[in-house]
Design brief:
single chain, mainly alpha, 76% helix, membrane, transmembrane, Phosphatidic acid phosphatase type 2/haloperoxidase domain-containing protein
């Protein structure tokens, strides 16, 4: 009879510990879920930004304005223009490049290094994302994300062996603009390298990485992550978001500068190529958004 108070006290203590344990478990579980949802939502906001109608139609309109300024008043674009880009930018920059840099420097530093480095780095990022998405937890549908990334890589022309993206090749054949170079006599508008660079880097930062982080459609948890992994992923997504636009601009600018300094493209060629690359990124993001809806 004397042991009952102690037994009751021990039982109430155990019950209190059990309640506290359950409450803590719920708090941790809720925090993990919030972290997973947070990094998924952040990733999808990048997709929303790239696939917005403003970026899609804005890049197309800017491309048309550049085209009009170059070809206005000709059979390619009947409406008369002011020829601001050819007269005040293209020819002066071409003369400066030709008179300042030696042919060897233009070929080695500008054409071979600057023109191609951002494309190679962006392509490596595509392949890395495709590989990671395919091999990591395919049971949750990441395999589908990986296959989608790889399909984009091939269809866009990065892995197909074509010298230009198909739409760029069609535009070059239509406009028939010659290069400023005395050595290369192929067609120049729009710049295929610049289009490629802007598309590859932009799609990596604003389409492929967000899709890999967000996971397949219907994945509301963002993967099997513990609290520490969720926090690290959340920090990584925030860092990528903060640096995405500067990296995108820098990569496109390096390639465009390489084409100009190599004297194989007019400045307006690279401007048109950049707009076309942005349009392709925005179109890809818009399609991916529609497929996830």
């Amino acid at each position: 009879m004397e042991g009952r108070p102690g037994t009751e006290k021990a039982g109430s203590t155990a019950e209190a510990f059990s309640i506290a344990e359950k409450t803590l478990s719920k708090l941790v579980s809720g925090h993990q879920g919030n972290t997973r949802v947070r990094h998924r939502d952040k990733a999808l906001r990048s997709l929303d930004f790239a696939g917005s109608p403003y970026m899609l139609f804005g890049s197309a309109l800017l491309f048309l304005l550049i085209t009009w300024d170059i070809f206005g008043g000709t059979s390619k674009f009947p409406i008369q223009s002011f020829y601001l880009l050819p007269h005040y930018i293209d020819w002066p920059v071409h003369a400066w490049v030709k008179g300042t840099f030696s042919p060897m420097l233009r070929d080695m530093a500008a054409e071979k290094l600057m023109s191609n480095l951002p494309i190679y780095l962006g392509s490596a990022g595509w392949l890395a994302c495709a590989f990671a998405a395919v091999v990591q937890n395919p049971a949750r549908g990441s395999r589908g994300v990986g296959i989608t990334v790889f399909a984009m890589w091939v269809v866009s022309g990065v892995g197909s062996g074509r010298s230009d993206v198909l739409i760029v090749d069609i535009l070059k054949q239509y406009f028939q603009r010659t290069r400023p170079s005395d050595i290369k006599h192929s067609l120049s508008f729009p710049s295929g390298h610049t289009t490629f660079s802007v598309f590859v880097i932009g799609a990596l930062l604003y389409v492929i990485l967000p899709l890999c982080v967000a996971g397949p459609e219907g994945d509301t948890e963002g993967g099997d992550l513990n609290a520490r992994e969720g926090r690290l992923l959340d920090i990584l997504v925030s860092a990528v978001q903060a640096s995405a636009l500067p990296v995108w601009i820098l990569g496109g600018a390096i390639t465009a500068s390489g084409r100009i300094l190599a004297d194989v493209h007019w400045v307006s060629d690279t401007m048109g190529g950049a707009c076309m690359g942005v349009f392709m990124v925005s179109a890809a993001a818009y399609v991916c958004k529609a497929l996830r809806a």
